[in-house]
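Researcher: We're teaching a course module on how sequence relates to structure. For the next exercise, students receive a sequence and then see the predicted structure as tokens, so they can try to spot secondary structure elements on their own. Here is the exercise chain.
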Amino acid sequence: PLSKVRQIAEGLKFGATVRAITRKGLSKIGSKGRDAAPFVVRYEQDGVEKDALVRAVIDASGTWGQPNPLGVHGLPIPGEGVSRYLSYGIPDVVGARRADFIGKRTLVVGGGHSAINVAIALMELQDADPKTEIYWALRHDGVDRLLGGGLNDQLPERGALGLAAKKAMEDGRLNMLTSFSADTIMTDGGPIVLAEAKGERIQLRVDQIVVTTGFRPDFSFLRELRVEVDPIVEAPPALAPLIDPNLHSCGTVPPHGVEELKHPEKDFYIVGMKSYGRAPTFLMKTGYEQVRSVVAEIAGDY
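Model: And here is the predicted structure for the students to work with:
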């Protein structure tokens, strides 16, 4: 609906990919008059590169296109980059890709709510075809934190996901693998995963692999801007300790806004999921408040 608002429609570019952002007449090291210089946003549309001059930039590009790899060390494992049987995030297993998963054996790797969503979707296929097998691999050694607070969870929908996963485990519908660490994917009529689980070497033949190990931000097109991020979480330094997944769940992240999102580059902000870097503790409600705060600052009425 916002695309129908005249002030937005006039500047809206569909099918455009931002390739770089800089300051007009200045590289990253140029300081004279930097804060007053407009941003140059270089984008590609219909195969043609174009530049737009703007006063401020809000990067809300998210992290969906930058999934974390299967490898437990943060690097892809041998065979991962070439396997056509591997999907990242939450594939549409009950819809567009139903034929790839129904009646098949699927390995889901990940210990978060994306993994629960995939497992629940696969169980829907299992109801239709009992030959559908689900292996769920957690890279840590327990499921308690994953399952959440159940009926007492601060976030009811998250609690419902946890309860559904717990019941599926109790009913034996999921083949659980904990302390899982894959090191190779081989292909022999389908993927064969060589891994370690609970300290033992295993060789698992499956039809599909779904990797739900989180996401990471893409800073490549921001190289000419003065962007500062925490070296661990890859979020703005003031925000990083508030969202660190080692200390917080999404329900314990305190309210925050423009002050925590600022970078050394004046009038440049990263908001939404990308502002959280590699932390998975983001809530959409938090993003709405971030955007409200940043836009109010740019408009001068913060």
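Model: If you want an answer key for the exercise: The longest helix spans residues 113-128. The first strand starts at residue 16 and ends at 23.
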